[in-house]
Design a protein that fits this description.
By secondary structure, the chain is of the alpha/beta class. 32% of the residues lie in helices and 20% in strands. Helix 4 crosses helix 5, helix 4 runs parallel beside helix 7 and helix 5 crosses helix 7. The termini are far apart. Bound molecules: adenosine-5'-triphosphate, iron/sulfur cluster (SF4) and magnesium ion (MG). Adenosine-5'-triphosphate binds next to helix 2.
Length: 354
Amino acid sequence: MNDIILNIVDLNKSFPLHSGISDLIRFKKSKKIKVIDNISFKISRGEILVLAGESGSGKTTIAKLIMRSINPDSGSIFFDNIDITKLKGKDLLKTRSKIQIIFQDPYSSLDPRMKIFDIVKEPLDVHKKGLKKIDIKEYVFSALKKVNLNPDDIISKFPHMLSGGQRQRVSFARALVLKPRLIIADEPVSMLDVSIRGQILELMKKLKQEENISFLYITHDLATSQYVGDNIIILYKGQIIEQGNIKQVLYKPLHPYTRALIAAIPKFTKDQAHHEIKIKNDPESISNQVGCKFINKCLYSTEKCKNSEPLLTIDEEEETHIPSSSSSSSSPSSTPHEPHNSHFIRCFNYESIS
Ligand SMILES: Nc1ncnc2c1ncn2[C@@H]1O[C@H](COP(=O)(O)OP(=O)(O)OP(=O)(O)O)[C@@H](O)[C@H]1O
Ligand code: SF4
Ligand SMILES: [Mg+2]
């Protein structure tokens, strides 16, 4: 059996820049901004891949492209070896049942007028029409048990009667009821109380281990992501700028941006002190600029960075020092035969940054 559940190849997506009313009147073509820029990555069965990056870097857009709620301009999304960008109708519906998404806000993602039983059952009405009542009950109860909720206590309640953590568990149960193979969790804990965030992360880990479910875990929280993630992608302006085994990337970050992100985490680890690195506070450019996209913020730029764009390449030095802790398989598809656990970096000068 192929170990790869999701394989994204050279994905691109642009959105129109907001044009003024005068442009509209003159029927002027609106400019486009590339939000997803040639992204490629893979997720294995039972892997948690962390997707991190600043606000606006394109994380949710990637989630929407995988869910097929928007279409890419180009590129492929292979789910279980089938390019889902080409699917329509029944075939698309079938795939959708295998990929589920959990949103950030458990308050607005659950219909306040529905009881928990009906909320968890709802996907079955769309994807498993004709199920007998007894089977529906079995599906719903089993999903609620998997997220450590007692079905008898909860099925007749409304969302407002639950805590934030319980609501997010219900969101997970609703996703699980269709027995998905991949769950996209878009900042699933950021609106929860700090005290219950750990429980939801533990739940993801349990579902990975017991159900072999894969996760694309979108988060700003690098510090806690190391406890659940196997691999990590750091996104900047729609490009992957660093990627690899989560411990490699967090404990030996190579890109100036990743290093600045990690340096900003208070007391992440004592060992991180020597990675501390600063970035410039220059305004962001929103144009489709030539050269490195990070140049306006980078203190290490050279002439080369202005004129050409760095490619995502393997850090050769780390190839020989692969940690054994993870079952990594995330690697850009342009290098399908590279060994697992490679550390990828997009920077001309990373080796000279100390
Ligand atoms: N439908 C759209 N039309 C135009 N621009 C869009 C659209 N959707 C997203 N964008 C733009 O694409 C960029 C990426 O947005 P996205 O929501 O993917 O970011 P994100 O990384 O998820 O950010 P956050 O961490 O704040 O959730 C942003 O600049 C956003 O304004
Ligand atoms: S390529 Fe140049 S500008 Fe870009 S991050 Fe590296 S040093 Fe900085
Ligand atoms: Mg987002």
